[in-house]
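Protocol step 4 of 6: record predicted structures for both targets in the notebook before any analysis. Target 1:
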Amino acid sequence: LFDYFEVLAEERGVNLELTGEHASVTGDRLMLRRALSNLLSNAIRYTPHGKTITVRLIKNTATDSLKIYVQNPGAVIPEKHLPYLFERFYRTDSSRQRAGEGAGLGLAITKSIIEAHGGSIAVSSNEEMTSFEISLPINAAPGTAQSNGSDI
């Protein structure tokens, strides 16, 4: 995904950084890529020029899960909006919406994809950064979306 987003990040004057260890999860590769693409696209859109977006991978062998953090500096998302960010069509401030910014479905789609894979997603935001935290099982449980192994 970094290869795909490199040009867009460069145009916006932001850097992409990947840290952590390689891990594989069981699931639909295209859907997981879409979920992460939605987060990276948003991060690039809201990161100030000259700043860095960081994607951190942390494997937790105790819980047999992978944590994926997509973190970017930028304007704080007010706490009152955080519980609603994953709802369809939710906007923190519809008066600031510009043409071509999307339909407000990206985070709702991301949440659906992550949950279909037996995972969860959360968001936090403070003066330093906005952070999306995804947790995915390394060994998928029965009933979760499965088709092929997806390297993260």
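Target 2:
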Amino acid sequence: TGHAMNNPKDVPFAAAAMWALVAIAALPRERPYLPLRHVIALGACIGLALAIRPGGLLFVAYASLWVLTSLVASRETSVRHIALAGLGLIGATVIAALVAMPVWPFLWERPVIGMFKALEGVSHHEWRGTVRFNGRDIRSTAVPWT
């Protein structure tokens, strides 16, 4: 039998995902929640992941969750500070889309709708290849719970 083949996008996406996670973990836990340099770095890192796979869009949700927990943990009550944090997340999302757009002609006409359509499309994609698990190749549809 042949060996399992990994998608050539797997390793670059894993690296970009790591950068996105580091950018999220580097976000301040208190005011200002999203300084401009963090917005730019976060957007660029998420954009790199998004340029490789539509699943990179999930890092926007992870960053939003991080900022939301920071707002709650610091008991932020200032509408201005909460709004600035939200604008920072929107800014990072726009930067991510701009970074990803050159390699996604699909997004050129409808950037926002196109991203969500692509994410929906891959979430319904059924892959029936083989994967390497515990030293042997097994069908992706027969992966044990472990």
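Step 5 preliminary note on target 2. Helices lie at 10-25, 36-52, 58-73, 79-100, 111-123. The mean pLDDT is 86.
Proceed to step 6 after PI sign-off.
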